[in-house]
DNA sequence: ACTGCGTCCTGGGGGC
DNA sequence: TGCCCCCAGGACGCAG
């Protein structure tokens, strides 16, 4: 399930294997993947045709590829819960497209920084559960695609290094609400990139119960939680992301290896790595939360 | 203004 | 063995 580390892995893969390519054709197989595009698939295709991919950027779970005439327009990708991006040699046989292929871009020119110029590759957006989408359109003056304009910075953004003004503002924002701390961690407007898996992992590291009212955290405690979250994201990124059922793969089709590092998520009944108590799974906001009942008490 | 809940979707797996 | 229901979840829209 793609959260920040998985999306960053994909961003880096696209930078290596697709940026520099010129979009020769755009094939949209699913209107649902175009649901954020006002003008639908025709507008999407018209905007992209002939453009060259100049860079791959990310904020939280949002990934976008800048287009030539830098600073003006971009191709946005959100992976939802099951989205993948595959970049591979172009195949003519449409029957060999993966199941759930939603969009295919054919890239010519000089795609990637490792291959030889003149080859042709395809960038496939594959998404079984269809919560993901693509969108093409203008960048705001801040350099963000319009659907990203309201999304907060993420913990790998240098602007959120500990001690910066933005970091202090983030701590204030977190403590400025009585909502449960996990709800705040998942609010992409406050802080982006964290989903259900890494929220539970960060809370375990910080020994916090998910329902703790955010306003009850002292600034130092909020800071500890943020550093726990930053650590878990960084470690997961180093491992290439988390994968459970092959729904997530990187651009080459390889799965991540962070699953084995998880302390609580998906580990109901297994011993806590700190105290040995059995991890519990509890219904939370129409989903599940995993925690150690001893290390993360409700107080 | 702010919060929280329902909704979209698919296929794998468990239970009967 | 077969069928049905549940479950996973990101982000947004809407109700209160």
Calculate the mean pLDDT score and round it. Answer: 91
Tally of separate helices: 6
Query: What's the architecture of the largest domain, going by CATH?
Result: Alpha-Beta Barrel
Instruction: Sum up the overall morphology in one term.
Output: globular
The CATH topology of the largest domain: N-terminal domain of MutM-like DNA repair proteins
Q: For the largest beta sheet, what order do the strands appear in spatially? A: 1-6-7-5
CATH class of the largest domain: Alpha Beta
What is the oligomer described by this structure? single chain
Give the biggest beta sheet: 4 strands, antiparallel
Radius of gyration: 20 Å
- Output the structural class: alpha+beta
Task: Characterize this entry briefly.
The chain is α+β, with helices and mostly antiparallel strands and 299 residues long. It folds into two domains: 4-148, Alpha-Beta Barrel (N-terminal domain of MutM-like DNA repair proteins), CATH 3.20.190.10; 158-291, Helicase, Ruva Protein, domain 3 (Orthogonal Bundle). 23% of the residues lie in helices and 22% in strands.
How would you sum up this structure, described in words?
The protein has 299 residues and is α+β, with helices and mostly antiparallel strands. It folds into two domains: 4-148, N-terminal domain of MutM-like DNA repair proteins; 158-291, Helicase, Ruva Protein, domain 3 (Orthogonal Bundle). The chain is built from six helices and ten strands; from the N terminus they run H-E-H-E-E-E-E-E-E-E-H-H-H-H-E-E. The strands form three sheets. A four-stranded antiparallel beta sheet has the order 1-6-7-5, covered by helices on one side. A four-stranded antiparallel beta sheet has the order 2-3-4-8, covered by helices on one side. Strands 9-10 form a two-stranded antiparallel sheet. A hairpin with a 2-residue loop joins strand 9 and strand 10 (287-291). Helix 1 crosses helix 6 (219-238) and helix 5 (196-205) packs across helix 6. The two termini are 31 Å apart. The chain binds a DNA duplex (16 and 16 nucleotides) through loops.
């Amino acid at each position: 399930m793609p959260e920040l580390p998985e999306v960053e892995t994909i961003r880096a893969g696209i930078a290596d294997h697709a940026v520099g390519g010129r979009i020769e054709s755009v094939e949209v197989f699913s209107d649902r993947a175009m649901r954020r595009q006002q003008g639908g698939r025709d507008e999407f295709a018209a905007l992209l045709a002939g453009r060259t991919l100049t860079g791959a950027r990310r904020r939280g779970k949002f990934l976008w590829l800048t287009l030539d005439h830098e600073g003006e327009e971009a191709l946005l990708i959100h992976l939802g819960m099951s989205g993948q991006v595959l970049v591979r040699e172009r195949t003519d046989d449409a029957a060999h497209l993966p199941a759930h292929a939603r969009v295919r871009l054919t890239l010519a020119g000089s795609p990637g920084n490792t291959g030889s110029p003149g080859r042709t590759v395809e960038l496939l957006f594959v998404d079984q559960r269809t919560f993901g989408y693509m969108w093409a359109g203008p960048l705001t003056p801040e350099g963000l695609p319009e659907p990203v304009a309201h999304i907060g910075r993420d913990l790998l953004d240098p602007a959120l290094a500990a001690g910066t003004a933005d970091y202090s503002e983030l701590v204030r924002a977190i403590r400025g609400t009585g909502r449960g701390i996990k709800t705040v961690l998942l609010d992409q407007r406050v802080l982006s990139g964290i989903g259900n898996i890494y929220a539970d992992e960060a809370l375990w590291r910080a020994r916090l119960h998910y329902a703790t009212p955010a306003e009850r955290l002292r600034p130092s405690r909020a800071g500890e939680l943020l550093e726990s979250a930053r650590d878990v994201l960084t470690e997961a990124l180093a491992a290439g992301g988390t994968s459970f059922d092959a729904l997530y793969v990187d651009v080459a089709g390889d799965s991540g290896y962070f699953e084995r590092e998880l302390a609580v998520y998906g580990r109901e009944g297994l011993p806590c790595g700190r105290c040995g108590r059995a991890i519990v799974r509890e219904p939370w906001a129409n989903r599940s939360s995993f925690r150690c009942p001893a290390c993360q008490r409700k107080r």
